[in-house]
Amino acid sequence: MNTDSYQQGDTSPLFTGEIFEKIEKPTNDWLEQWPSQCNILRPYQADLLKRLMASLRTHRRVLGQAPTGAGKSMLIAALVAAARMGDLRVLILATRTRLVKQLHERLNDFQLPHGIMAASLPGLASWSKPIQIASVDTLYRRCLADKRHPTPLADLVVFDEAHLALGASRRAVLDAYPLAYHVGFTATPAKTSGVGLDAQFDHMELGPSAAELIALKALVPIRIFAKPVVSKAELQAVGKDSKTGDYVTGEISKIMLRPKLVGNVVENWLRIANGKRTIVFACDKKHGAELQQEFSRVGVSCEQLTDGDAEEVREEVIARLDAGITHVLVNCFLLSYGIDIPSVECIVLARPTRSVVLMLQAIGRGMRPAPDKSSMILIDHGRVIDNLGLPTYEREWSLKGGNVNKQAEERYSSRKVTVEKPRTCPDCSRMWVLSEEGSRCPECGYQPIIRAAGVRVTDAELGEIGAQLPSVDVLQPFFREACDWYATRWPDRWQQKEKSGRWWAWMQTREKFKRPDDERMPSLFWNVAPLKASAETSGWLTAKIKEFKRKMARR
Ligand SMILES: [Zn+2]
User: Fold this and answer.
1) Of 333, 329, 309, nearest in space to 318 by CA
2) Residue 454's pLDDT band (boundaries 50, 70, 90)?
3) Where are the extended beta strands (E) located within 259-349?
4) Closest by alpha carbon to 47, among 30, 32, 64, 27?
5) pLDDT tens-digit profile of 309-319?
6) What is the pLDDT of residues 466-506, one digit of tens each?
7) What is the DSSP letter of 523?
8) For the stretch 213-237, what's the b/e string if a residue is b when 16 or more beta carbons lie within 10 angstroms of its beta carbon?
9) Is 272 helix (H, G, I), strand (E, B) or coil?
Protein backbone atom coordinates (compact mmCIF):
# COMPACT_ATOMS: atom_id res chain seq x y z
CA MET A 1 0.00 0.00 0.00
CA ASN A 2 1.09 3.52 -0.70
CA THR A 3 2.46 5.15 2.41
CA ASP A 4 2.66 8.80 1.45
CA SER A 5 -0.63 9.73 3.04
CA TYR A 6 -0.61 7.20 5.89
CA GLN A 7 1.74 8.73 8.37
CA GLN A 8 3.24 6.91 11.27
CA GLY A 9 0.95 7.00 14.28
CA ASP A 10 -2.08 7.68 12.14
CA THR A 11 -5.08 5.60 13.11
CA SER A 12 -6.48 5.12 9.64
CA PRO A 13 -7.87 1.65 9.02
CA LEU A 14 -6.26 -0.30 6.23
CA PHE A 15 -8.06 0.13 2.99
CA THR A 16 -10.06 -3.01 2.30
CA GLY A 17 -11.42 -2.16 -1.09
CA GLU A 18 -14.78 -0.73 0.00
CA ILE A 19 -14.70 2.85 -1.22
CA PHE A 20 -17.68 4.35 0.52
CA GLU A 21 -18.55 3.83 4.10
CA LYS A 22 -22.21 4.33 4.91
CA ILE A 23 -22.87 7.95 5.81
CA GLU A 24 -26.09 9.15 7.32
CA LYS A 25 -27.56 12.30 5.91
CA PRO A 26 -26.49 14.99 8.43
CA THR A 27 -29.17 16.97 10.24
CA ASN A 28 -29.55 20.72 9.97
CA ASP A 29 -28.95 21.38 13.69
CA TRP A 30 -25.49 22.86 13.18
CA LEU A 31 -26.92 25.62 11.04
CA GLU A 32 -28.42 27.24 14.12
CA GLN A 33 -25.00 27.79 15.69
CA TRP A 34 -22.64 30.71 15.28
CA PRO A 35 -19.17 29.85 16.52
CA SER A 36 -17.26 32.50 18.44
CA GLN A 37 -14.37 32.37 15.91
CA CYS A 38 -16.77 33.89 13.39
CA ASN A 39 -16.94 37.13 15.33
CA ILE A 40 -13.72 38.27 13.69
CA LEU A 41 -15.37 38.21 10.26
CA ARG A 42 -15.92 41.53 8.56
CA PRO A 43 -19.58 42.54 8.42
CA TYR A 44 -19.99 41.64 4.74
CA GLN A 45 -18.31 38.28 5.35
CA ALA A 46 -20.56 37.49 8.30
CA ASP A 47 -23.57 38.54 6.26
CA LEU A 48 -22.68 36.25 3.36
CA LEU A 49 -21.90 33.33 5.65
CA LYS A 50 -25.21 33.70 7.50
CA ARG A 51 -27.09 33.76 4.20
CA LEU A 52 -25.22 30.70 2.97
CA MET A 53 -25.95 28.79 6.16
CA ALA A 54 -29.61 29.80 6.05
CA SER A 55 -29.89 28.57 2.47
CA LEU A 56 -28.43 25.19 3.50
CA ARG A 57 -31.63 24.54 5.44
CA THR A 58 -33.46 24.16 2.18
CA HIS A 59 -30.72 23.38 -0.34
CA ARG A 60 -27.97 20.77 -0.32
CA ARG A 61 -25.64 22.31 -2.89
CA VAL A 62 -25.10 26.01 -2.51
CA LEU A 63 -22.66 28.39 -4.12
CA GLY A 64 -21.20 31.51 -2.51
CA GLN A 65 -19.95 34.24 -4.82
CA ALA A 66 -17.37 36.68 -3.52
CA PRO A 67 -14.80 38.65 -5.50
CA THR A 68 -11.08 38.10 -5.14
CA GLY A 69 -10.05 39.80 -1.95
CA ALA A 70 -13.36 39.21 -0.17
CA GLY A 71 -11.57 36.71 2.06
CA LYS A 72 -12.79 33.38 0.75
CA SER A 73 -10.43 31.40 2.96
CA MET A 74 -11.83 33.25 6.01
CA LEU A 75 -15.34 32.30 4.94
CA ILE A 76 -14.34 28.69 4.43
CA ALA A 77 -12.63 28.48 7.85
CA ALA A 78 -15.65 30.08 9.54
CA LEU A 79 -18.05 27.70 7.81
CA VAL A 80 -15.90 24.75 8.86
CA ALA A 81 -15.82 26.02 12.44
CA ALA A 82 -19.62 26.10 12.44
CA ALA A 83 -19.82 22.60 10.98
CA ARG A 84 -17.42 21.28 13.61
CA MET A 85 -19.63 22.67 16.36
CA GLY A 86 -22.25 20.32 14.99
CA ASP A 87 -19.68 17.52 14.88
CA LEU A 88 -19.78 17.28 11.11
CA ARG A 89 -16.89 15.74 9.18
CA VAL A 90 -15.56 18.15 6.61
CA LEU A 91 -13.76 17.75 3.32
CA ILE A 92 -12.34 20.88 1.68
CA LEU A 93 -11.40 20.52 -1.98
CA ALA A 94 -8.92 22.86 -3.62
CA THR A 95 -7.48 22.88 -7.12
CA ARG A 96 -3.87 23.78 -6.42
CA THR A 97 -1.20 23.08 -3.85
CA ARG A 98 -0.91 26.79 -3.26
CA LEU A 99 -4.59 26.99 -2.33
CA VAL A 100 -4.31 23.91 -0.13
CA LYS A 101 -1.50 25.63 1.74
CA GLN A 102 -3.47 28.85 2.12
CA LEU A 103 -6.44 26.95 3.54
CA HIS A 104 -4.13 24.99 5.82
CA GLU A 105 -2.78 28.23 7.28
CA ARG A 106 -6.25 29.69 7.65
CA LEU A 107 -7.59 26.64 9.51
CA ASN A 108 -4.58 26.89 11.82
CA ASP A 109 -5.52 30.51 12.51
CA PHE A 110 -8.98 29.28 13.45
CA GLN A 111 -7.44 26.49 15.55
CA LEU A 112 -9.16 23.79 13.57
CA PRO A 113 -7.04 20.59 13.55
CA HIS A 114 -7.01 18.97 10.13
CA GLY A 115 -5.20 16.62 7.79
CA ILE A 116 -4.09 17.22 4.22
CA MET A 117 -4.27 14.99 1.18
CA ALA A 118 -2.02 16.37 -1.52
CA ALA A 119 0.72 14.54 -3.38
CA SER A 120 2.99 17.55 -2.93
CA LEU A 121 2.47 17.86 0.85
CA PRO A 122 2.84 14.31 2.23
CA GLY A 123 4.17 15.54 5.57
CA LEU A 124 0.85 17.15 6.49
CA ALA A 125 -1.33 14.07 6.12
CA SER A 126 -3.34 13.08 9.16
CA TRP A 127 -6.00 10.65 8.15
CA SER A 128 -7.86 10.51 11.44
CA LYS A 129 -8.76 14.19 11.64
CA PRO A 130 -12.43 15.05 11.06
CA ILE A 131 -11.39 17.90 8.73
CA GLN A 132 -9.47 17.05 5.57
CA ILE A 133 -8.16 19.48 3.00
CA ALA A 134 -7.56 17.70 -0.27
CA SER A 135 -6.11 18.58 -3.61
CA VAL A 136 -9.12 17.53 -5.67
CA ASP A 137 -6.92 15.96 -8.33
CA THR A 138 -4.89 13.96 -5.81
CA LEU A 139 -8.09 12.73 -4.21
CA TYR A 140 -9.55 11.73 -7.54
CA ARG A 141 -6.42 9.84 -8.54
CA ARG A 142 -5.94 7.98 -5.30
CA CYS A 143 -9.49 7.30 -4.23
CA LEU A 144 -11.55 7.11 -7.41
CA ALA A 145 -9.22 6.31 -10.31
CA ASP A 146 -6.62 4.06 -8.66
CA LYS A 147 -8.85 3.09 -5.73
CA ARG A 148 -5.77 2.92 -3.54
CA HIS A 149 -7.37 4.80 -0.65
CA PRO A 150 -10.85 5.11 0.79
CA THR A 151 -12.47 8.46 0.19
CA PRO A 152 -12.35 10.60 3.33
CA LEU A 153 -15.70 10.64 5.14
CA ALA A 154 -17.53 13.94 4.99
CA ASP A 155 -20.87 15.46 5.87
CA LEU A 156 -19.87 18.82 4.43
CA VAL A 157 -17.87 19.18 1.22
CA VAL A 158 -16.45 22.62 0.47
CA PHE A 159 -15.11 23.39 -3.01
CA ASP A 160 -12.80 26.36 -3.40
CA GLU A 161 -12.68 27.95 -6.89
CA ALA A 162 -16.02 26.31 -7.60
CA HIS A 163 -16.13 27.56 -11.20
CA LEU A 164 -13.59 24.80 -11.79
CA ALA A 165 -15.85 22.08 -10.36
CA LEU A 166 -17.30 21.04 -13.69
CA GLY A 167 -14.58 18.86 -15.19
CA ALA A 168 -15.45 15.16 -15.29
CA SER A 169 -13.02 14.10 -12.54
CA ARG A 170 -14.01 16.94 -10.25
CA ARG A 171 -17.68 16.20 -10.72
CA ALA A 172 -16.98 12.57 -9.94
CA VAL A 173 -15.39 13.61 -6.63
CA LEU A 174 -18.38 15.76 -5.69
CA ASP A 175 -20.79 13.05 -6.80
CA ALA A 176 -19.07 10.64 -4.43
CA TYR A 177 -20.75 12.58 -1.60
CA PRO A 178 -24.43 12.42 -2.50
CA LEU A 179 -25.70 12.89 1.05
CA ALA A 180 -23.34 15.63 2.19
CA TYR A 181 -23.87 19.38 2.14
CA HIS A 182 -21.95 20.95 -0.73
CA VAL A 183 -20.76 24.54 -0.53
CA GLY A 184 -18.78 26.08 -3.37
CA PHE A 185 -16.98 29.41 -3.37
CA THR A 186 -15.87 31.43 -6.37
CA ALA A 187 -15.40 35.00 -7.52
CA THR A 188 -16.89 34.17 -10.90
CA PRO A 189 -19.79 31.70 -10.71
CA ALA A 190 -19.92 30.78 -14.39
CA LYS A 191 -18.07 28.78 -16.98
CA THR A 192 -15.71 30.47 -19.41
CA SER A 193 -18.60 30.41 -21.85
CA GLY A 194 -20.62 32.57 -19.46
CA VAL A 195 -23.29 30.05 -18.47
CA GLY A 196 -24.05 29.27 -14.84
CA LEU A 197 -23.02 26.33 -12.67
CA ASP A 198 -26.41 24.70 -12.19
CA ALA A 199 -24.96 21.28 -13.01
CA GLN A 200 -23.25 21.25 -9.60
CA PHE A 201 -25.19 23.75 -7.47
CA ASP A 202 -28.84 24.48 -6.89
CA HIS A 203 -28.70 27.78 -5.05
CA MET A 204 -26.42 30.81 -5.06
CA GLU A 205 -25.75 33.68 -2.63
CA LEU A 206 -23.90 36.75 -3.87
CA GLY A 207 -21.25 38.54 -1.84
CA PRO A 208 -20.13 42.18 -1.97
CA SER A 209 -19.19 43.78 -5.29
CA ALA A 210 -15.63 44.63 -6.27
CA ALA A 211 -16.57 48.32 -6.07
CA GLU A 212 -17.68 47.88 -2.44
CA LEU A 213 -14.44 46.09 -1.61
CA ILE A 214 -12.43 48.89 -3.21
CA ALA A 215 -14.34 51.40 -1.10
CA LEU A 216 -13.51 49.32 1.99
CA LYS A 217 -9.86 49.23 0.90
CA ALA A 218 -9.97 45.43 0.78
CA LEU A 219 -8.99 45.83 -2.88
CA VAL A 220 -7.05 48.57 -4.63
CA PRO A 221 -8.57 50.75 -7.38
CA ILE A 222 -7.68 49.93 -10.98
CA ARG A 223 -6.07 52.37 -13.41
CA ILE A 224 -7.00 51.09 -16.83
CA PHE A 225 -5.06 51.97 -19.97
CA ALA A 226 -6.69 51.00 -23.25
CA LYS A 227 -4.06 50.36 -25.88
CA PRO A 228 -5.84 48.27 -28.48
CA VAL A 229 -3.46 46.70 -30.97
CA VAL A 230 -6.17 44.98 -33.00
CA SER A 231 -9.00 46.66 -34.82
CA LYS A 232 -12.65 45.93 -34.15
CA ALA A 233 -13.04 44.53 -37.64
CA GLU A 234 -10.12 42.17 -37.10
CA LEU A 235 -11.59 40.92 -33.85
CA GLN A 236 -14.99 40.44 -35.41
CA ALA A 237 -13.46 38.32 -38.14
CA VAL A 238 -11.89 35.90 -35.65
CA GLY A 239 -13.78 32.62 -35.31
CA LYS A 240 -15.59 31.63 -32.13
CA ASP A 241 -14.69 28.46 -30.26
CA SER A 242 -17.89 26.43 -30.26
CA LYS A 243 -17.33 25.14 -26.73
CA THR A 244 -16.20 28.22 -24.83
CA GLY A 245 -17.62 30.96 -27.06
CA ASP A 246 -14.21 32.65 -26.85
CA TYR A 247 -11.99 33.58 -29.80
CA VAL A 248 -10.32 30.61 -31.49
CA THR A 249 -6.89 30.61 -29.88
CA GLY A 250 -4.90 29.85 -33.04
CA GLU A 251 -6.55 32.66 -34.98
CA ILE A 252 -6.21 35.30 -32.29
CA SER A 253 -2.63 34.26 -31.65
CA LYS A 254 -1.76 34.71 -35.31
CA ILE A 255 -2.91 38.32 -35.16
CA MET A 256 -1.24 39.12 -31.86
CA LEU A 257 2.01 37.51 -32.98
CA ARG A 258 2.68 40.20 -35.55
CA PRO A 259 6.11 41.54 -34.57
CA LYS A 260 4.88 45.10 -34.34
CA LEU A 261 2.17 44.16 -31.88
CA VAL A 262 4.57 42.19 -29.72
CA GLY A 263 6.83 45.24 -29.69
CA ASN A 264 3.86 47.45 -28.85
CA VAL A 265 3.02 45.45 -25.76
CA VAL A 266 6.55 45.84 -24.44
CA GLU A 267 6.77 49.52 -25.37
CA ASN A 268 3.55 50.34 -23.58
CA TRP A 269 4.62 48.47 -20.50
CA LEU A 270 7.86 50.45 -20.44
CA ARG A 271 5.91 53.67 -20.71
CA ILE A 272 3.09 52.91 -18.28
CA ALA A 273 4.26 50.31 -15.81
CA ASN A 274 8.04 50.07 -16.01
CA GLY A 275 9.44 48.33 -12.94
CA LYS A 276 6.09 47.12 -11.58
CA ARG A 277 5.63 43.46 -10.86
CA THR A 278 3.52 42.35 -13.76
CA ILE A 279 1.57 39.36 -15.03
CA VAL A 280 1.05 39.29 -18.79
CA PHE A 281 -1.72 37.14 -20.25
CA ALA A 282 -0.76 35.92 -23.71
CA CYS A 283 -2.75 34.01 -26.36
CA ASP A 284 -0.73 30.82 -26.37
CA LYS A 285 2.72 29.43 -25.67
CA LYS A 286 4.21 30.76 -28.87
CA HIS A 287 2.86 34.24 -28.33
CA GLY A 288 4.05 34.09 -24.72
CA ALA A 289 7.53 33.08 -25.83
CA GLU A 290 7.71 35.99 -28.29
CA LEU A 291 6.64 38.42 -25.59
CA GLN A 292 9.16 37.00 -23.15
CA GLN A 293 11.92 37.36 -25.74
CA GLU A 294 10.99 40.93 -26.50
CA PHE A 295 10.86 41.90 -22.81
CA SER A 296 14.22 40.22 -22.26
CA ARG A 297 15.70 41.91 -25.33
CA VAL A 298 15.04 45.34 -23.84
CA GLY A 299 16.56 44.27 -20.54
CA VAL A 300 13.46 43.47 -18.49
CA SER A 301 13.73 40.34 -16.34
CA CYS A 302 10.90 38.22 -17.68
CA GLU A 303 9.87 34.57 -17.40
CA GLN A 304 7.15 32.48 -18.96
CA LEU A 305 5.05 29.82 -17.27
CA THR A 306 3.25 27.20 -19.30
CA ASP A 307 0.94 24.36 -18.35
CA GLY A 308 3.84 22.02 -19.08
CA ASP A 309 5.77 23.33 -16.07
CA ALA A 310 5.74 21.18 -12.96
CA GLU A 311 4.09 22.62 -9.89
CA GLU A 312 7.45 23.06 -8.10
CA VAL A 313 8.80 25.03 -11.06
CA ARG A 314 5.68 27.16 -11.01
CA GLU A 315 6.12 27.90 -7.33
CA GLU A 316 9.75 28.91 -7.84
CA VAL A 317 8.88 31.24 -10.69
CA ILE A 318 6.07 32.81 -8.69
CA ALA A 319 8.42 33.27 -5.73
CA ARG A 320 10.91 35.08 -7.98
CA LEU A 321 8.16 37.41 -9.16
CA ASP A 322 7.08 38.07 -5.58
CA ALA A 323 10.67 38.81 -4.58
CA GLY A 324 11.05 41.25 -7.47
CA ILE A 325 13.83 39.22 -9.10
CA THR A 326 11.52 38.67 -12.05
CA HIS A 327 9.55 41.73 -13.11
CA VAL A 328 7.28 40.33 -15.74
CA LEU A 329 5.66 36.90 -15.76
CA VAL A 330 4.06 35.80 -19.01
CA ASN A 331 1.43 33.03 -19.13
CA CYS A 332 -1.73 32.01 -20.98
CA PHE A 333 -4.50 32.15 -18.39
CA LEU A 334 -2.70 29.52 -16.37
CA LEU A 335 -2.34 32.02 -13.57
CA SER A 336 -5.83 33.38 -13.84
CA TYR A 337 -6.81 31.80 -10.56
CA GLY A 338 -5.25 30.25 -7.54
CA ILE A 339 -2.35 32.58 -7.13
CA ASP A 340 -2.32 35.45 -4.77
CA ILE A 341 0.71 37.65 -5.08
CA PRO A 342 -0.37 40.92 -3.53
CA SER A 343 2.84 42.58 -4.71
CA VAL A 344 1.67 42.26 -8.34
CA GLU A 345 0.81 45.77 -9.44
CA CYS A 346 0.20 45.44 -13.14
CA ILE A 347 -1.84 43.11 -15.32
CA VAL A 348 -1.35 43.15 -19.08
CA LEU A 349 -4.09 41.64 -21.24
CA ALA A 350 -2.18 40.86 -24.43
CA ARG A 351 -4.92 38.42 -25.34
CA PRO A 352 -8.36 39.48 -26.44
CA THR A 353 -11.12 37.45 -24.78
CA ARG A 354 -14.90 37.32 -24.87
CA SER A 355 -15.08 35.69 -21.46
CA VAL A 356 -16.11 37.76 -18.46
CA VAL A 357 -14.84 34.99 -16.18
CA LEU A 358 -11.36 35.01 -17.72
CA MET A 359 -11.22 38.79 -17.65
CA LEU A 360 -12.24 39.08 -14.00
CA GLN A 361 -10.02 36.24 -12.86
CA ALA A 362 -7.03 37.72 -14.66
CA ILE A 363 -7.56 41.23 -13.31
CA GLY A 364 -8.25 39.84 -9.82
CA ARG A 365 -4.57 38.79 -9.68
CA GLY A 366 -3.52 42.40 -9.29
CA MET A 367 -6.18 43.80 -7.00
CA ARG A 368 -5.00 42.76 -3.57
CA PRO A 369 -3.62 45.51 -1.39
CA ALA A 370 0.03 45.48 -0.35
CA PRO A 371 2.37 47.93 1.38
CA ASP A 372 3.17 50.94 -0.84
CA LYS A 373 0.54 49.90 -3.38
CA SER A 374 -2.29 52.36 -3.78
CA SER A 375 -3.65 51.14 -7.09
CA MET A 376 -3.10 48.59 -9.80
CA ILE A 377 -2.47 49.15 -13.49
CA LEU A 378 -4.33 47.27 -16.18
CA ILE A 379 -3.08 47.57 -19.74
CA ASP A 380 -5.69 46.25 -22.15
CA HIS A 381 -4.38 45.51 -25.65
CA GLY A 382 -7.31 43.40 -26.75
CA ARG A 383 -10.34 45.73 -26.43
CA VAL A 384 -11.45 43.54 -23.54
CA ILE A 385 -12.82 46.35 -21.37
CA ASP A 386 -14.40 48.00 -24.38
CA ASN A 387 -16.29 44.78 -25.14
CA LEU A 388 -16.99 43.37 -21.69
CA GLY A 389 -17.26 46.51 -19.56
CA LEU A 390 -15.30 47.70 -16.55
CA PRO A 391 -14.24 45.04 -14.05
CA THR A 392 -16.10 46.97 -11.36
CA TYR A 393 -19.46 46.77 -13.12
CA GLU A 394 -22.04 44.67 -11.31
CA ARG A 395 -22.66 41.42 -13.15
CA GLU A 396 -25.91 39.52 -13.03
CA TRP A 397 -24.63 36.09 -12.15
CA SER A 398 -27.16 33.35 -12.42
CA LEU A 399 -27.02 29.59 -11.94
CA LYS A 400 -29.29 28.88 -14.85
CA GLY A 401 -30.56 30.80 -17.83
CA GLY A 402 -28.33 33.86 -17.72
CA ASN A 403 -25.07 34.26 -19.55
CA VAL A 404 -22.64 36.91 -18.30
CA ASN A 405 -20.79 37.06 -21.61
CA LYS A 406 -23.96 37.73 -23.60
CA GLN A 407 -25.09 40.21 -20.97
CA ALA A 408 -21.80 42.12 -21.31
CA GLU A 409 -22.02 42.06 -25.07
CA GLU A 410 -25.54 43.48 -25.01
CA ARG A 411 -24.93 46.08 -22.35
CA TYR A 412 -21.41 47.29 -22.80
CA SER A 413 -20.14 46.62 -26.29
CA SER A 414 -23.08 48.31 -28.01
CA ARG A 415 -23.25 52.08 -28.26
CA LYS A 416 -26.90 52.11 -27.28
CA VAL A 417 -26.11 51.37 -23.67
CA THR A 418 -27.56 53.43 -20.89
CA VAL A 419 -24.77 52.72 -18.45
CA GLU A 420 -22.07 55.36 -18.36
CA LYS A 421 -19.27 54.30 -20.64
CA PRO A 422 -15.72 55.04 -19.65
CA ARG A 423 -13.77 57.54 -21.70
CA THR A 424 -10.31 56.95 -23.04
CA CYS A 425 -7.79 59.74 -22.89
CA PRO A 426 -6.36 60.35 -26.37
CA ASP A 427 -3.14 61.54 -24.76
CA CYS A 428 -2.23 58.83 -22.29
CA SER A 429 -4.85 56.13 -23.00
CA ARG A 430 -6.16 56.13 -19.46
CA MET A 431 -9.82 55.11 -19.18
CA TRP A 432 -11.95 56.93 -16.70
CA VAL A 433 -15.51 57.41 -15.63
CA LEU A 434 -16.76 60.96 -15.60
CA SER A 435 -19.15 60.61 -12.67
CA GLU A 436 -16.40 59.16 -10.49
CA GLU A 437 -13.25 60.95 -11.50
CA GLY A 438 -14.39 64.21 -13.04
CA SER A 439 -14.22 65.63 -16.53
CA ARG A 440 -10.44 65.63 -16.85
CA CYS A 441 -8.22 62.64 -17.40
CA PRO A 442 -7.17 61.72 -13.85
CA GLU A 443 -3.79 60.63 -15.17
CA CYS A 444 -2.54 63.57 -17.24
CA GLY A 445 -5.15 66.28 -16.79
CA TYR A 446 -6.30 66.15 -20.39
CA GLN A 447 -9.55 68.04 -20.85
CA PRO A 448 -11.86 66.67 -23.51
CA ILE A 449 -13.01 69.12 -26.14
CA ILE A 450 -15.21 71.74 -24.69
CA ARG A 451 -18.67 72.19 -26.00
CA ALA A 452 -22.23 72.68 -24.93
CA ALA A 453 -24.06 70.13 -22.82
CA GLY A 454 -25.82 67.39 -24.66
CA VAL A 455 -23.54 67.42 -27.66
CA ARG A 456 -22.34 63.98 -28.47
CA VAL A 457 -18.63 63.77 -29.01
CA THR A 458 -17.62 61.63 -31.93
CA ASP A 459 -15.48 58.58 -31.52
CA ALA A 460 -12.54 60.12 -33.29
CA GLU A 461 -12.36 62.99 -30.86
CA LEU A 462 -12.33 60.83 -27.78
CA GLY A 463 -10.32 57.90 -28.97
CA GLU A 464 -12.51 54.89 -28.91
CA ILE A 465 -15.22 55.63 -26.44
CA GLY A 466 -18.01 58.11 -27.03
CA ALA A 467 -19.33 60.07 -24.07
CA GLN A 468 -21.67 62.82 -23.08
CA LEU A 469 -19.72 65.90 -22.09
CA PRO A 470 -20.64 68.09 -19.15
CA SER A 471 -21.77 71.69 -19.38
CA VAL A 472 -19.84 74.37 -21.32
CA ASP A 473 -16.33 74.69 -20.08
CA VAL A 474 -15.03 78.21 -20.31
CA LEU A 475 -11.33 77.48 -20.28
CA GLN A 476 -10.97 76.99 -23.98
CA PRO A 477 -12.49 80.23 -25.35
CA PHE A 478 -10.43 82.26 -22.88
CA PHE A 479 -7.30 80.35 -23.81
CA ARG A 480 -7.89 80.95 -27.51
CA GLU A 481 -8.47 84.65 -26.90
CA ALA A 482 -5.28 84.85 -24.87
CA CYS A 483 -3.40 83.29 -27.80
CA ASP A 484 -4.89 85.89 -30.10
CA TRP A 485 -4.01 88.72 -27.73
CA TYR A 486 -0.42 87.47 -27.55
CA ALA A 487 -0.16 86.98 -31.32
CA THR A 488 -1.53 90.48 -32.02
CA ARG A 489 0.72 92.17 -29.50
CA TRP A 490 3.90 90.21 -30.30
CA PRO A 491 3.43 88.92 -33.85
CA ASP A 492 7.14 88.11 -34.35
CA ARG A 493 7.39 86.11 -31.18
CA TRP A 494 4.22 84.23 -32.07
CA GLN A 495 5.68 83.49 -35.52
CA GLN A 496 8.95 82.20 -34.19
CA LYS A 497 7.94 80.62 -30.93
CA GLU A 498 4.29 79.83 -31.07
CA LYS A 499 4.74 77.09 -28.48
CA SER A 500 5.92 79.45 -25.78
CA GLY A 501 3.11 81.83 -26.73
CA ARG A 502 0.60 79.07 -26.20
CA TRP A 503 2.26 78.13 -22.94
CA TRP A 504 2.02 81.73 -21.81
CA ALA A 505 -1.69 81.76 -22.72
CA TRP A 506 -2.17 78.57 -20.72
CA MET A 507 -0.50 80.15 -17.66
CA GLN A 508 -2.88 83.09 -17.92
CA THR A 509 -5.83 80.73 -18.28
CA ARG A 510 -4.72 78.78 -15.26
CA GLU A 511 -4.51 81.93 -13.21
CA LYS A 512 -7.76 83.39 -14.44
CA PHE A 513 -9.67 80.24 -13.48
CA LYS A 514 -7.68 79.59 -10.33
CA ARG A 515 -6.49 76.22 -11.49
CA PRO A 516 -3.63 74.47 -9.67
CA ASP A 517 -0.15 75.69 -10.65
CA ASP A 518 0.97 72.29 -11.80
CA GLU A 519 -2.01 71.54 -14.02
CA ARG A 520 -0.84 70.33 -17.40
CA MET A 521 -1.96 72.09 -20.52
CA PRO A 522 -4.56 69.96 -22.30
CA SER A 523 -2.79 68.63 -25.38
CA LEU A 524 -5.61 69.86 -27.55
CA PHE A 525 -4.59 73.42 -26.68
CA TRP A 526 -1.39 73.08 -28.69
CA ASN A 527 -3.50 73.13 -31.83
CA VAL A 528 -6.66 75.16 -31.31
CA ALA A 529 -6.92 78.30 -33.42
CA PRO A 530 -6.70 81.71 -31.73
CA LEU A 531 -10.02 83.49 -31.29
CA LYS A 532 -10.40 87.27 -31.48
CA ALA A 533 -10.00 88.53 -27.94
CA SER A 534 -13.05 90.18 -26.41
CA ALA A 535 -12.70 93.57 -24.73
CA GLU A 536 -13.06 91.86 -21.40
CA THR A 537 -10.26 89.38 -22.02
CA SER A 538 -7.99 92.09 -23.47
CA GLY A 539 -8.66 94.24 -20.44
CA TRP A 540 -7.87 91.45 -18.03
CA LEU A 541 -4.61 90.57 -19.80
CA THR A 542 -3.53 94.21 -20.18
CA ALA A 543 -4.12 94.83 -16.49
CA LYS A 544 -2.07 91.78 -15.66
CA ILE A 545 0.85 92.89 -17.80
CA LYS A 546 0.72 96.36 -16.21
CA GLU A 547 0.71 94.88 -12.75
CA PHE A 548 3.59 92.61 -13.69
CA LYS A 549 5.61 95.60 -14.95
CA ARG A 550 4.92 97.59 -11.76
CA LYS A 551 6.11 94.65 -9.67
CA MET A 552 9.30 94.37 -11.69
CA ALA A 553 9.93 98.15 -11.39
CA ARG A 554 9.66 97.99 -7.59
CA ARG A 555 12.42 95.40 -7.34
ZN1 LIG B 1 -4.62 61.29 -19.97
Assistant:
1) 329
2) very low
3) 278-281, 302-304, 328-331, 346-349
4) 64
5) 888 888 899 99
6) 333 333 366 888 999 999 999 999 999 898 888 889 999 99
7) G
8) bbeeebbbbbbbbbbbbbeeeebee
9) helix
From CA 133, how far away is CA 79, in angstroms rounded? Answer: 14
Are residues 374 and 430 located together in one domain of the fold? Answer: no
The rounded Å distance from CA 273 to ligand 1 centre is 15
Residues 319, 260, single domain; the answer is yes
CA of 427 to the centre of ligand 1 (A): 5
Task: Tell how far the Cα of 408 is from the centroid of ligand 1, in angstroms.
Answer: 26
CA of 281 to the centre of ligand 1 (A): 24
> Do both 90 and 70 map to the same domain?
yes
The reported pLDDT for the residue numbered 466 is 35
Single-letter amino acid, residue 486: Y
Say yes or no: 482 and 467 in one domain. Answer: no
Domain extent for 503: 475-554
Domain count, the chain: 4
Q: How far is the CA of 298 from the centre of ligand 1 (A)?
A: 26
Cα 160 to middle of ligand 1, angstroms:
40
Q: What is the CATH number of the domain that holds 179?
A: 3.40.50.300
Q: Specify whether 274 is located in the same domain as 162.
A: no
pLDDT (tens digit, 9 = 90+) per residue, 53-100? 999 999 999 999 999 888 899 999 999 999 999 999 999 999 888 889
Distance from the CA of 218 to the center of ligand 1, in angstroms? 27
Centroid of ligand 1 to alpha carbon of 233 (angstroms): 26
454 and 501 inside one domain? no
- Residue 96 pLDDT: 84
Nearest residue to 467 (alpha-carbon basis) of 421, 503, 401, 508: 421
